[in-house]
Design goal:
115 residues, alpha/beta, 27% helix, 3 helices
Length: 115
């Protein structure tokens, strides 16, 4: 089942704009193997809307998920910049340092900052 974790991309965010994001811990049901993933989209009016899409998708893979917090990401693909900031009213502030590390692994040639 740990291989289910490896099938889940670490980062899925919109290609452009300013949007809400959440940091989610996914783990194998009944197990200890886990990893943290970043999800963000402009289509979410509230942070919980993102989690409401992520959770059933993870359950279908036999994984449990819990939201560790949220914030916002500003993605400028032209200038290759990502800015991580803010917090979620419902979930609290995500650990932006973890989010930045996840983003750096995917957006290797980007300038990534956090506030």
């Amino acid at each position: 089942m740990a291989d289910s974790l490896s099938k889940v991309p670490d980062v899925e965010i919109d290609p452009e704009g300013k949007f809400k994001y959440i940091l989610v811990r996914i783990k194998v049901k009944g197990g200890t193997d886990h990893k943290d993933i970043v999800r963000g989209t402009k289509s979410a009016e509230y942070h919980n809307h993102i989690f409401e899409k992520v959770n059933p998708a993870m359950e279908a893979l036999g994984l449990e998920s819990s939201c560790l917090g949220g914030g916002k990401i500003e993605h400028n693909s032209t200038e290759k910049k990502l800015r991580v900031f803010g917090e979620s009213t419902g979930y609290g502030k995500a650990d932006h340092a973890i989010t930045v590390e996840k983003l750096k692994a995917v957006f290797k040639d980007y300038e990534i900052t956090m506030e």
